[in-house]
Amino acid sequence: MNAGSKYTYIGRDEDEEMELDTEEVQVSPYPQQPQQQQQPQQQQQQQQQQQQSQGFFSSLFGSKPAPPVQQQQQQQQQQQSPFSNINSNNNNNNSSPYRGAPKVKKVVKKATTNILNVSLGTLSNETKIATGDPIFCSSCKVAFSNINQFKKLDSGDGESFDNVATAGGYNTETNKWECEFCGETSTIQLQPEEIPKTNIVDYVLEAPPVSTTTVDSNNNNTTAAVTATPTHEDDESYVIFCIDTSGSMQCSYEVPEKIPPKYQTADQLNAAKLQQSMLRSQGNMFVNTPQRHYVTRLQCVQYGIDSQLETLQKEYPNRRVGVVAFSHGVTIIGDGTSPVQVVDQSKVEDVGQLLEIGSSYTLNSPVSKSCESLARKVFALDAQGSTALGPAVAVAVGMASRVRGSKIVVCTDGLSNVGVGAVENKKLEDVQKFFNQMVDHCVRSGTTVAVLGIKGADCKLEELGKLAEQTNGDVNIVDPVSLKEEFKSVLALPVLATNVSIKVRLHAGLYIQDPTLLASLQSFIEKEVGNVNQDTTVSFEYGVNPSAAAKYDLSKLKSLPFQLQIYYTTMKGLKCVRFITMTKETTTSQEVAIENADIDALGVNLVQTSAKIASTGDYHQSRAKNFTNTTLLNNVIAKKQEKIMMQPQSAANQQMYQQQQQQQQMWNNQAQTIETQLTKTMQKESNQVESVDLYQQRSKNRSDELANVLFNQKSMNTRKANKKF
Asked: In the chain, what are the domain boundaries?
């Protein structure tokens, strides 16, 4: 668990009221960066020039270009307009057509550093399986941890820190356990080997296969092969590319360079041969006019798959890769070593039969053997017909269900209009029901789905993207010429565990909340997560429960306990629970909490929380939360930089200063993105009165552009923020 600060602030929550209209507000209050910051921009400029000199196809299938200097200059200019005056009409653009929009008052909890980010990448770390069964407090359901007996605590990500003991604990002489979380006293009988020896403990809920464990006869513990991720050589999971070959995939784009012969269509090859023939026959008399080069959406998909086949062949030789293509119907290409199977058109409306067709289909060959034959069949595909996206997804889900941890990559440029899941001329409730069915199947089988929509097309991402969101896959709207990098990105992180659910339990004097749920003062929260990878992060806010103040005087406690309970299934089917218990020192001073705050932890919470609220349709509430959290983040950075400036100049201090500036710009950019998208959307609404009906209507009519932003920000983590920066 990553916290917003080293300290838990035990002061009371404060609310603030904001008055908002639909005008966009700039979120960064700091007008400039120090002079020393110019060097990174120069380096980015040099990188940009180098990439431009490498040619189009090297950049198309190479690394992502650095952001242009002009964009950074615009961002710095935006910083000159602070949002601290949000309640004032201080925008000088008097020509704005939206200045007459009615103002809406929103009350929001003033931001504090009391946030918890649950990083589930910790499941990649091996642990020892504890002996016996976990013991729970009969009152608050916290697992016995023996937390007060440890001098050092493991954070779960390789770091350790000093433990500050809290109230309560276990007395080995009397066998009495006073729960550190609620004060409930219990009598428990434990053998010495059953007492936890560390603050991170795993228990087996269902016995593992014999081949996955070894017994340590010295301490009676089962040493887990709880390595959640199989090695590259052991990974035999499926990767299914579910690709759109409808007529709109013929849409082409002009590119500056000649397409390599390997990727050219028959028409393109014939045109090139004709030109060469004319040159040979007419010699210098033939005027060789500059030739224009075009690439279709389908070709971009084909390039991307071909590139990933080569990568997977080298890095995951035993993975099994298959392709499902869809236009007016569904065609199973498979791994390229078997005859193509065309799904009977009479079955495209039957979810059960489509899933059965997929689950009965086997990918016989690993990618190390099927790579070339599959690539040939992929390049033989052409674009025509309508879009049977739903039936293709159902078949792909059935195929992937055969192996836990498999992945599906859906790539489309249009609305599903044939069979199950069709958006056109169908009730939205039916579409949602279909995708919910797909989510349920994926969660049960441990399948992750990534959804890539083609930029400039409408694919109703608000519904399709939920399939990815709820299976912990990526969602993105991409330029076709960037598909290679996108395919690489969505396949980069292997699944660590499946069927993951978490329970976060705090001291009984605290509360914990998820912004998408009804306000609650409970000291625990539960959440179904599904599949997780190294980057999976879930953020929560917590605070002091005023109704518990009479029973628990938190000011007398030097620290407060926190426990994360992770229920998960490993890639080998081993069902376990991991308990991570920590303590955090308390403070009644917000200044102390701010001085010891974690910038990235606050940034992740800022972005996730704003996006989660916006997804409910309450855009003004999301913006208000965005503003108060960004204010806190910028105050934290200002305090840290003020402290650095008071210290003697050194290379280390200068590096820290620059890093903080980069963190600030990164998170402010994310905050500005959602502010821009929400205000742009609201400006298109005419005199809409705030109501539940309006919020629901916004969800139904959400543009692909906004849906893409919200999906990405709801699953935000530091790596993703750096990528989007």
From this structure: 14-95+590-724, 115-144+154-166+199-226+497-586, 238-258+295-490
